[in-house]
Amino acid sequence: MTVKVHIIYCGGCGYRPKFTKLKTLLEDEFPGELEITGEGTPSSTGWFEVEVNKKLVHSKKNGDGFVDSDSKFKAVVTAIEQAMGK
What single Pfam family name could you report for this chain, choosing any that match (predicted)? Predict the structure, then answer.
């Protein structure tokens, strides 16, 4: 089963490189198992939201910041593993 990961990032804030980095890390962690999409907001929102199968698992808007540490990345990985039934 392919797990869908959708990342909404602030298009007006220059966050695309952060999206690209997270996408690459997740593809390396789960080769061929994920469908990863990204959506840049048209205005400066400050958002960096990560959804796994439509469930919000990380939210800069809600105070999580960026996925910029091992613990934050592990939380996203754990959510994906749960979605896979691992």
Answer: Rdx
* Backbone φ and ψ of 50, nearest 5°: -120, 125
Each residue's pLDDT tens digit in the chain (86 positions)?
Answer: 799 999 999 998 989 999 999 999 999 999 999 999 999 999 899 999 999 999 999 999 999 999 999 999 999 999 999 999 98
DSSP result, the chain: -PEEEEEEE-GGGT-HHHHHHHHHHHHHHSTTTEEEEEEE-SS----EEEEETTEEEEETTTT---S-SHHHHHHHHHHHHHHHT-
